[in-house]
Amino acid sequence: MSYEKVLQAKSIYVGTKQAARALNSGNVSEVIVATDADPRLTSKVVDIASKTNVPISYVDSKVKLGKSCGINVASAVVAIVNK
Q1: Which residues pair with 56 in a beta bridge?
Q2: Lower CB count within 10 Å: N or C terminus of the chain?
Q3: 35: region left, alpha or beta (phi > 0 left; psi from -120 to 50 alpha)
Q4: Burial level of 41, CB count in 10 A (0-12/13-18/19+)?
Q5: Cα-based torsion angle of the residue sequence 42, 36, 8, 11 in order, rounded to the nearest 10 degrees
Q6: DSSP string of 5-22?
Q7: Sign of the alpha-carbon torsion through 44, 50, 8, 25
C-alpha cells in the first residue's frame, strides 16, 4: 500500500506546490494522491505526473497520508524523491 511507501521513503515533498515543483525538476519517482482531496487541488500535480511519465498511486485518506508523512495535518499529495 502507498502509505508504507511514504513511510519508507528517504525523501518526500508534501503538498501540491512542493510536489509540482519537484515534478518539474525531474526528481520524483512516484506521486501519491489522496482521493478524498479536492480535484481542483490535485489535478495540476496529476497532469504534470502524467506528462512526465511519473507513476501515480492513489490512497483513500488525506488525513492518513499526512500522518504517514509525519505531520499532523491532512496532505492531498506527496511526491517521493528519486533515490
Answers
A1: 31
A2: C
A3: alpha
A4: middle
A5: 30
A6: HHHH-S-EEESHHHHHHH
A7: negative
H helices present in the chain, as ranges: 2-8, 16-25, 39-51, 62-68
Name residue 37's amino acid: A
* pLDDT tens for the chain, residues 1 to 83: 578 888 888 899 999 999 999 999 998 999 999 999 999 999 999 999 999 999 999 999 999 999 999 999 999 999 999 76
At 42, list the grid cell: 490535485
Neighbouring CB atoms inside 10 A of 77's CB total 27
Kindly report the CA angle at 24 between 75 and 50, in degrees rounded to 5? 75
3-state secondary structure of 59: strand
Nearest to 77 by CA among 51, 43, 50: 43
